[in-house]
Amino acid sequence: MKSFFQYYKPYKGLFMLDFGSAVFVGVLELVFPLITSLFIDKLLPTKDWNMIVLGAIGLFLVFSFVTVLKFIVTYWGHKLGTNIERDIRNELYRHLQRLNFGFFDNNKTGKLIGRLTNDLMDIGELAHHGPEEVFVAVMTVIGALLIMLTIDVKLALITFCIVPIICILTIYFNKKMTTQFRRLFGNVSQFNDVISESIGGIRLVQAFTNERFEEKRFLQTNEDFRATKLKAYNFMSWNSSIGYLAQKFTLIIVLILGCYFVLNNAMSYGEFVAFIMITDILFKPLQSINLIIELFPKGIAGFNNFQELMKTTTDIKDEPNAIAFEGTPQVISYENVTFKYGDKTILDDLSFTINRGEKIALVGPSGGGKTTICSMLPRFYDPVDGRITINNVDIKQMTLESLRNKIGLVQQDVFLFSGTLRDNIAYGNLEATDEEIMDAVTKAQLKPFIDTLPEGIHTIVGERGTKLSGGQKQRVSIARMFLKNPEIIILDEATSALDVETENRIQSAFKQLSEGRTTLTIAHRLSTIRDVDRIFYIEDGHIVEMGSHEELINLKGRYYKLQQAQYAQVLG
Ligand code: ADP
Ligand code: MG
Predict the structure, then answer these.
(1) What are phi and psi of 344, to 5 degrees?
(2) Is the CB–ligand 1 distance for residue 374 below 6 Å?
(3) Which of 269, 295, 429, 447 could form a disulfide with 483 if both were Cys (CB 3.0 to 4.6 A apart)?
């Protein structure tokens, strides 16, 4: 609770304005029946028309003021809620952006999107309505009781016997309803998963002509969704019907008893009318209870989820004494590096050294740990044991930003954002000028392609770059690297998905990119790495062979065998 209220701190004024207005509206609503009774009992008998009109004008002014307050409560109250929602969302986003790869390996994107959207909307609503509705509801019930008691004790007590019964019924149906609605939210996220997977994977769906299978899956989920929703509405209908009946039933009892009291001169006409009005007001908090019962569990669940996410920390961050790495990376050293994904050991006591400008190729069976080795250099993952150094400094002692700025990574699946080609290339250096971008485009051999486009570099690439071929996407990512201009380059099977001809074209771009830079190439096709300085043959997280192409061929070991196998394949 305390950690929730801290978010109100920057908006104390807004909160006071909203809360104060809500309370004031509540008080005036309570007082209105009393004023009405005065009208009837005191003003009416004077038969002074001027006074009556004056009274009416006075009331009109008071309620014009209440109208303004109501506007404040709705608008400024929601402003308070949306401000808090925004603050919490920003905080969460900032936090998520810095969590490590390990976290994202284990958390579904859909879930995180839910945390950032729906959950936070619930928190925002709770932040606005929560304190205000609870306070006004309690105040209204107590106030109404007190006023009723001052009018007529007996009638007040009888009325109040009925209220708890209605409360219990309302709470019962509400609980049922919220359980259903909560199930519904579960269904919604399931629903979202099915939709995002089948729409996101539509190319795969159509390629396998699995539309009917997907349709069945979807129809089932959609049907579950409808059924759950209908159940929730069932309880909602019971709730509102029973609530309505109870309210009118209470009013009728008050009406009969009131008539009896008035006829026996135990109550004035004005008091009678006031009593009926107050009884009506008494039912208002019940509606608030509806809202509160719905808001609280949702808002609190959302806030708990938020806090839980905020508690997940990452070890991959700047150490307090971290310094920016400024020089040129001369020597990269893996020293007895051990790494595990969970309990599974991937790298075990791995050591090697790479000098500046060296071109290294990592080859070997898939699953051997090549990608993992490379992911550790930009600290996407940290070693469990041992250390990685650049120029003899542990990379953990460097600021992440300075370390990652030195490293350029081209992956097999290039990720493109849905903007233009230019946006995507400029992602390598957000401050790049047009000339720099065009230079990168030329070096990455993208120019001939861009020249064929009517809109040139301002062409929209589609979601994830679907409007581009694999080779074109690859060249966009190379252009990004030219802009970033890192001193260490990692190419992770960057060309394995391409046909040989495209690959050859891209190879020359890569060659230009890696010139004078330290390069780590993970290669699938051995033909692409003939002229690297050294080849590491990686198997089960160990370097089992190391040397130049000639050396490894002469060794007649695993590399030789792989070479033979691929050669045989090419010859068919
Ligand atoms: P390579 O690049 O040589 O094909 P990887 O480094 O990608 O090999 O994978 C090495 C091993 O680690 C494989 O057995 C793989 O299943 C496992 N692995 C890779 N990435 C993850 C991950 N994010 N979480 C858990 N295990 C992983
Ligand atoms: Mg790999």
Answers:
(1) -85, 115
(2) no
(3) 429
pTM (global) more than 0.90: no
Q: Is residue 316 part of a domain?
A: no
Question: How does residue 397 score in pLDDT terms, banded at 50, 70 and 90?
Answer: very high
What ipTM, to 2 d.p.?
A: 0.97
Please identify, by atom number, the ligand 1 atom nearest to the C-alpha of residue 373.
6
**Residues 297 and 405 placed together within one structural domain of the fold:** no
Which amino acid is located at 167 in the chain?
A: C
Q: What is the pLDDT, as a whole number, of residue 120? A: 87
Shared domain for 355 and 502, answered yes or no, is yes
Integer Cα distance of 566 and 570 in angstroms: 6
Residue 545 clears pLDDT 90, i.e. is over it: yes
Could you give the C-alpha distances from 366 to 252, 370, 519, in angstroms and in order?
Answer: 80, 8, 20
Counting ligands in written order, which one lies closest to the CA of residue 541?
1
C-alpha 271/C-alpha 155 separation (Å) is 11
Report the percent of the chain where pLDDT is more than 90: 45
Q: Where are the alpha helices (DSSP H) in 325-416?
A: 370-375, 400-405
Output the pLDDT for position 361: 94
Residue nearest to atom 23 of ligand 1 (CA): 105
Say if ligand 1 is within 6 A of residue 104 CB: no
Domain enclosing residue 499, as ranges: 331-571
Query: Which atom of ligand 1 approaches the CA of 369 most closely?
Result: 6
- The closest-lying atom of ligand 1 relative to the alpha carbon of residue 342 is 25
**Does residue 535 contact residue 546 with C-beta atoms inside 8 Å?**
yes
Ligand 1 proximity of 327 Cβ (cutoff 6 Å): no
- Say which ligand is closest to the CA of 343: 1
* Cβ(366) – ligand 1 distance below 6 Å: yes
Residue type, 388: I
> pLDDT grade, residue 571 (50/70/90)?
low
pLDDT in tens, 473-485: 888 988 999 999 8
Nearest CA to ligand 1 atom 21: 341
- CATH code, 107: 1.20.1560.10
Mean pLDDT, range 118-145, rounded to an integer: 87
The per-residue pLDDT for range 504-515, each reduced to its tens digit, is 777 777 888 888
Whether residue 276 sits in one domain with residue 385 = no
Q: What is the mean pLDDT of the chain?
A: 88
Compute the distance from residue 371 Cα to the ligand 2 centre, in Å.
Answer: 4
State if residue 50 touches ligand 1 by the CB under 6 angstroms criterion.
Answer: no
- Based on the fold, state whether residues 473 and 342 are members of the same structural domain: yes
Placement of tokens 């303004």 in the chain? 68
Nearest CA to ligand 1 atom 6: 369
Tokens representing 285 are: 């908090």
Nearest ligand atom owner, CA of 538: 1
